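Reading a protein record of the kind used here takes only a little practice. An example makes this concrete, so a full record is given next.
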Amino acid sequence: MKTKALLFVIFTVCLFALGVLVTTLFNTAPSTNDAVAMFYASLSITLFGLFFFLLFAFTRIQTHVVPGLAALKVMLRTSLIVDILAVALLALKANNVLNWATSIVLTVVAVIIGVVLKRQVKQ
């Protein structure tokens, strides 16, 4: 997949998920399980796109060129890990089970997963 096509697909899916997120926030009752699942799913996709495009913008500003496909794969992996961590912490906080120990353990697990995936790609 070409770089422009990948960026367009991620932007389009992120924009659609943002629309679903806003619709879910204002038009559903938070007491149903379907609404909660739709909220977390759309939030996850929206945050993934936001993190990805922030990484893309920082890389573009630093290097003054459009990142290649290899750099985009690294950004995708990093965005996915950060997104899963953020949504997991938010879900735990919403259920009143988040504390410092849990958040530190989840952050360490996210870092370990990032390092393991980085090493597997290099081999």
In short: Residues 33-63 form the longest helix (31 residues). The radius of gyration is 16 Å.
